Batch of 4 targets.
Target 1
Amino acid sequence: MSKFRLLSCLLLSAIFLSASWPPYGFTPLLFVGFVPLLIVENELFVHQNKYKNIHLFLYTYLCLVLWNFSVSWWLYFASGGGAVMAITANTLLMSITFTIAHIIKKKLHHFFKNNFVRWIIKYNVVFIVCWLTFEYLHHDWDLTYPWLTLGNGLAADYKSIQWYSYTGMPGGSLWVLVVNVFCAEIINSASFQKQKLIISAGLLLLLIMVPIGISRLLYASSADVGEKKINVVVVQPNIDPYGEKFSGNYMEQLQKMLDLGRSKVDSTTDYLVFPETALTEDIWENNLQQVSSITELQKFLKQYPRLSIITGASTSKVYKNGEPRSETAHQFKDGEDYYDNFNTALELDNNGKIQVYHKSRLVPGVERMPFPGLMKPFEKLALDMGGTTGSLGTQKDRTVFTSSAGAKICPIICYESIYPEFISKYSKNGAQVLFIITNDGWWGDTPGYKQHLIYGRLRAIENRRSIARSANTGISCFINQRGDIEQPTQWWQPAVIKASLPLNNELTFFVKHGDYLGHFSFYTSLLLMLLAVYTQFFIAKKS
């Protein structure tokens, strides 16, 4: 393969992957996005004496950095340095994954003549399980950034992925990878006999159409589940996060939100929902009842005995003497005590009860310095996104809010909504409906907030839970259990919407069993890596 053809393949893969991505992409391109790159990988595999592993790594990085940039460029609006770090680091991890799969493939092919091993290599099963393992691990560590998980790329065509309630979003990644690998194998095959091409085309058609057909049947036959309903009012205050939100008068902002809510709230309303960090007053959890914002909300609640309020807030907590403290705890400059800062969700009701949840999937480099135990001396370098900076605290449990009437609510804060298994644990803990509170104004009027919105519909499908979404600015909405977005608000406009949401107690297969595809891929790729090491250090020495 000439350098021109090689570079053309890399560019073509980057174009296909970029042009497939929501919210504006053409989804079918995702099923051939990796094909040119896999053709390059096969060329390097066939001519191992000519190319080294570093060649594949560099070629892959060149291709995937273009994809990462085209999909995530809008991060620049929040932080130029943060955008560079996220894009380059994510591409690095993807390229390492691709290269590891290539190395394993070479080792197994050289030393194992077994037909089953050859089948694994021929159909690039190594690449599939390694990539799924990368996505699985990338959801649960300190440098997590699963925004470009392949299953997310299908969010725009949600009617074709209703089976996410069985597989979760990883099932979409598996589907995309299998089709890409199969297409690449057809092209890489030395034989282009008419009969084989017809059979291959037929199998490819089945791989694509059967999941779509099943999903469309599920979509047509399903309806929202839940006999009991709650009446929910969602507020979108539209307060500029770069201007008045963290520098303006916090009480004036609160009154603005209450006035918006008052236009829709009545005696039948169960929940009034405000966005992430809606309360910007300095709030110490040790004295919540003394906080003026909390007092104002409780005055409002007295007018509506049935009502509960869910709101985001920036809070802090002082650790008492002898109380165990987290690795993110800060020491007061003028004392011996320690405290933690949190991105928090609160539920207030008419009984005076205040329920607290701390955001636990934090944005790396913005809300949390990665590996805080090691990096604590550098936490002052964390990017300033308004509110508290440095490493925020988290909590281990997936807290479910329970209203005085018994409704169980899942409080999801912003970035947390892109984590499938993380959210499923709320449903396992009894959540009957999902509330997403977010502040998407950091990115301006770019694809970022639209991607964030439609990723949320995947959580509705996986859990079969209705969603109320309150964004500081566009897009607030409701999402039903099939993923349909209802009453979407406009960008950069104050708004208030109202709907009745069913409370669903049923657990989907995905909620019951979690990310079983990720678990299986992890152990399979680990086994393949051990086999590769075995061939290197044992079989190679004997030969």
Target 2
Amino acid sequence: MINAATSLLPEMVLAQNGNTGVAEALVTWADFRAILPVLVLLATGTLVLLIDCFNRGLSRPEAAGKRRSSLSAVINLLGLLGAVMAGALAVSSMQQPEMTAFQDSIRVDSFSSSVSLLIILGTFFSLLGAIDYLKRFDAEHGEFHCLLHYAAASMILFVQSNNLIMLFLAVETLSMAAYLLTSYLRDQRRSVEGGLKYFILGSFSSGFLLFGFTLIFGATGAIELSAIAESIAANEADPSLLLAGLALTVIGLGFKVGAFPFHSWLPDAYEAAPAVATGFMSVTVKSAAIVVLLRFLVLTANQPGSEIPVGEVLTTLLSLLAAATILYGNLVALMQNSVKRMLAYSAIGHTGYLLIGVVAALDPDGSKTAEAAVLFYLLPYTLMSLAAFTLLGYLGDNGQDRETFEDYRGLSSSRPVLALCLLVVLVSFAGIPPTAGFWAKLHIFRAALDGGHTWLALAGIVGSVISLYFYLRLVVNMYMRPEREKLDTDPDANLASGLVIVTAALALIILGIFFPDLSL
């Protein structure tokens, strides 16, 4: 039996190319070349973890502090270099024609490469902000860098996935890294509780997602996204199974992006996680999940020859989801006294704005414009969130982030540059010109209007007006109220975090003034 099984291996590993006796390997160098950014991130994460493991505790007690400081510097440098290399490879892949790899399970095109670059940008800024933050918390360990690199690699594979199996594997690998990042400060009870809640609810959402994929496979008999679309276009899919599977998929991915009513994990996880990890998860995880939701639903809905009302059902479902998410997130954010929780509920509101773009993309005539609007929205949102959460960590002391609105009283007097940067970020969050946040919302609302979703655009505008209160509340505390207490933070000890904050604020102004109409 063993000999018989062994004799079948060549047929399983090799595929005939048409000539007798000539075989072609199923996996070639071109396949690995397509995912080079992923390989660089995985290699960097593994390397920094191994360096940390083999060097920890090897020095004498009297030299341990100096050795640990040098080790942390090496790990930080390697982590940043790995992100830069991955970003350069992502930029080069944007110039290449569309390609598939690993038997069509991976698809690399300009859209996925652009999102990959955005994910890598968020990873780079998170690693830079973590240099000072982890030192203050005495948590400079290689596993943080490893988790960030592994999560980024999983996100890139997530947006490049071209079949249901790859989608599920990538999202589960990403989720495991996100759970660990949430509870990274394991000596703090709140961090562990937040990570546990995130894990439990995330497991339920994975069940919905897997069940949805199973029903879609049962309805179409295919796992490749293109084959699923062809089955729908040819009216070969079972309508009831397909619509049920798509609904469950929306629920599973809705959890990942924090859409109402699948948002309950998000405020606790954001509050519990380290500020730099919160910033990373708030932009990269959401970007990857929104893009996958966009491409998957657009592919299934925009099939003109189909008699199955996929587009109509998805448009109705996502429209209600988007409006509810916008109103809920902004209204609950009004009642928060913690800046971190306010930003968490604000993130829920911004998920609603992105879902408006997804709804607009379901219209075949405006799908490209709406996709470009969603992608453009993700860029300033990434800069805003990273700057805001990095600043929370920058101002923290005694092992705690500065979270309440009262903690920011008089910030313009003690830290005028930081206050100005935060002002720019908050103005951009609210969608006020001339920042990039204004143009991001404008493109989303314009795409909704062009698609005939006027009421949805109005819901977004109402949500933006509501958000002015809690954003300006923080501005009032910074500029119009006396300083509560002297800040103990040393600017010279927070150069990396300061660089992230200032760079993000400047980028928001530059994008808003000079590049208001970026497209794919």
Target 3
Amino acid sequence: MMETIRFEDLELDSRILRAVTEMGFEAATPIQAQAIPVQMEGRDIVGQAQTGTGKTAAFGIPLLQKVDPKEKKLQAMILCPTRELAIQVAEELRRLAKYMHGVKVVPVYGGQDINRQIRSLKDGVQIVVGTPGRVMDHMRRKTIRCDHIHTAILDEADEMLDMGFLEDMETILGELPQERQTLMFSATMPEEIQRIAANFQKEPVMVKVVKKELTVPEVTQYYYEVRRDTKVEVMCRLLDMYSPKLSMAFCNTKKQVDDLVGELQGRGYFAEGLHGDLKQMQRDQVMNRFRTGKTEVLVATDVAARGIDVGNVEAVFNYDIPQDDEYYVHRIGRTARAGHAGIAFSFAVGREVYKLRDIQRYCKTKIIPQPIPSLNDITAIKVDKIMEQAEELIRDTDLSDMIGMVERKLLEGEYTSMDVAAALLKMSMGEENEDISDSGILPRSLDDLDRRGRGGDRYGRYGRYGESRYGEGRGRGGRDYGRDSWDEGRGSRGDRYGRDGSHEGRYDRRREGADGMVRLFINIGKDQNVKPGDILGAIAGESGISGRVVGSIDMFDAYTFVDVPQESARLVMKAMKNAKIKGKSVRMEVAH
């Protein structure tokens, strides 16, 4: 196991430490343990770490220590690639600053009324978290003034680069005071990111989370795409379905451990929790009950579970996706000990599926998607179990007295023995909950996310911008469509379905209903010196949808086509109504 550094060891402000403790975190992640001391020394940092490793707290905690709550002027600027991330970072900073009265954090991003943001900024703000395009809008309007900024942070810098924000990042950094601390966090280090570091940072310290070679145990690994509010129900269904004698569930915070234990106990499971707030005597008692089988489910944080070696754990639940890839391996290694079979279940909420994809790739393992068990599945399993217990009781117990009592009741009433048996079975099974299954639809394969989703190769839904899932040389707007449908990619909107203007071109036949995507037309193209990254950055920045879900971007001389999810098409068109790309007004509509 990696060395544990607790937050108490980092000489943090007592107010920040109180907030961190309340959030339930026990120990710093590797990137936090390395970056926090360096940033507190005032050094510039280039941090290389994947999403989900705790980067926000890594730069947020030292930043809050440096901010003066009494100074009602902008002191720090954080740039993020998307509206979603800007909101997320701002919310986490607010949680960390909960007991630092006077600290105000404001997110600014496209898609939100700029006048509302202006009002918030005029009230006095110390930290702005924003997307590059909207930050530049405010700088031009003088509603963001940079004179007193002492810290600039670029979060997911390579993502901003992919989305076409390189010039914006350089412009913003060039407007900030020379005497400042500049931090840059990125999952990869392409040449452009290295150039930004060379031009805008002073002798930066490289902070990198080094990945070790891992040996993944022989464990059957499944994952389920769930909503946050259905996690407990899904876990209970799996416990009922697989009936592990002993199982462990892992949560990322102490609070979540306590909450999950309460939920499981309330549903009749023998569960106990293990985290850093327990004294040694309490830990020993919990572990003794778990080893002897009195406790069926042990819920723990990663730090508290270190050193635990129980040989007959049959199942591990990643109730929360771990913050670090190595934690995943240590977790699932709790099962499949001493030649026994083991199984691991992971619950992914929303974009956590991409983190799980990264874990699969890093660990060189296979995590298999599974549908959530339906109520019918669980009902059948419960019936089988109850009937097995009944059969065992019939074989091993003298039931003559009970049979006599049942017969007398039947003679007194109007019900048959079958009615009574069915009622008793119903009582034994308990109440049914709402069916939350996904109707048997399998969640996305993690391998498919590599082929189709951003985040695998950090490009479009079907690969790098303009490349096609249909194979080299056969992409949308490529040769297959060029002569028949696109007039070799130089035609007007009127003939984009074929030279005769009909709807019989290959494009329309292939695209119709494909992958739940909608193809949108944009009235600018290569002639306006626009790049695919500019288009993607504008769509993500203005509409707030993740760049990961945007499909192929096919550029031609005078226009561009872009695929977006069907459910987001109307939002994207509305958000882009007054947008400009490279100074050009944009008109967007559905490509019929």
Target 4
Amino acid sequence: MNNKAEFVSENAESQVLTDGFHLVIDALKLNGINTIYGLPGIPITDFTRMAQGEGMRVISFRHEQNAGNAAAIAGFMTGKPGICLTVSAPGFLNGLTALANATTNCFPMILISGSSEREIVDLQQGDYEEMDQLAIAKPLCKAAFRVLHAEDIGVGIARAIRSAVSGRPGGVYLDLPAKLFAQTMDAVAGRNSLIKVVDPAPHQIPGAEAVQRAIDLLKGAKKPLILLGKGAAYAQADDLLRTLVEKSGIPYLPMSMAKGILPDTHEQSASAARSFVLPEADVVLLIGARLNWLLSHGKGKTWGGKSSKDWGGQKFIQIDISPTEMDSNVRIDAPLVGDVGSCVSALLAGMGNNWPQPPAEWLNAVAERKNKNVAKMAETLAKDPSPMNFHSALNVVRDIVKANPDAMLVNEGANALDFTRSIVDMYKPRKRLDVGTWGVMGIGMGFAVAAAVESGQPVIAVEGDSAFGFSGMEVETICRYNLPVCVVILNNNGVYRGTDKNLSGGSDVAPTVFVKDSRYEKLMEAFGGVGAYATTPAELRKAMEEAIKSRKPTLINAIIDETAGTESGRITSLNPAAALKK
């Protein structure tokens, strides 16, 4: 234990003591956790000072939700639980949105919040920011724990770490009442009470029968397809996945955060033929992907069904560490329960050395559709409309990412999200970070901060003007820590677009319309960063290149046609009003 964490009591025996503050810090550091994302305030302000004094990096935000999002994506990037630290009650509630989102997305994260004293909360006597935080958090995360005694801090943090990363990763809540921090105990006993977690996410090996069942199904496929989800990216089994794809010869389709496990330009990538391969495939191997709404629940017209509830006839092989994920929407013919690395290794061993390639008829059909769509997209991207639209602006981003493949790409919005997914190619794994399973707005600046802190690489954050508004004040955080983040706001003056009208004819603008010609770049300039205003692709390209080269906090206000964009982007079908417009 660091000598700074120990002090001598004033009793006759001059006993060396430690306290709750330092036991929490030492427990985190013992487990290789050296960064905290949070927001100081009662009762955790002194803790943040002490943690920084003990060599931890404490990144302080302007809003707890953004700190929580940063912690969550740090967990995805590193495989270690990201730590978010908040004050009690309102601060805890702000962090809770990020905790729930982390759990839904399977990002390992620990939300640590200070809280009121139990004896006052339980009698509802009206303490400062009184709230039964543990009870509120439990339904929204994998596990929730409260530590009441200093000697239990080591156990509490160990349980939180193991819960966050073992099995299916997710969010964990750790409740630390204010009085815990000031508790003291013998320094040697305190040191001995801490736990270094051994093998917190043990491998889970699939059964031999399950592997053979999957092998037989793949071998008999006439139109096989591999579908990679963000769980495959999280697994960091990149070499194994590449070997599986290339050895099998099977076309693959990456979900958005799985882009880059293999380069999007790989000859087996079927991204440009997505609408063709999903309904046509006869056997689909899901790796770290769930058949949720993002994949139309494995049925419906997306998969060749006649209606939204019809199964298209595909047979599914699914690799997932959670057995209860199987059959969640459609029948899984060959469930492979285990971690991605172990399951893919088992499949490769079972395939042997003479694995038959998929029928040429299938490969040629995929290639033909892919080449046709790529050519069509190239024609669209080559256009230079004035003002810019999503395609012409994102063609610049596409080039910048290609020239800087190590850069992180953060992406959120509606149309800004959809178009970026389909236009901007990724070349390396875990470089694309976006809204994920919930499709929640507001992850942008939190993700951008953590991406810069954890990777040390430049970050490009492509934001819709609406999405930016949820976390835009964190540009001050970006400037304060001098992070190499380049924010590109695709500004079309509103939610979806800036042309909606007030149906009553009144003086208020429509609910989806923002202040026209807003100068977002001035916000970055206000805190000492670089602001740029771009109305042409050439101006956008120049500003982005300068931002990447200088590594200075930069915000580019990219003005696009306010008529560009569609209602709800690609999920218009989820809007009840869409049915009325038909």
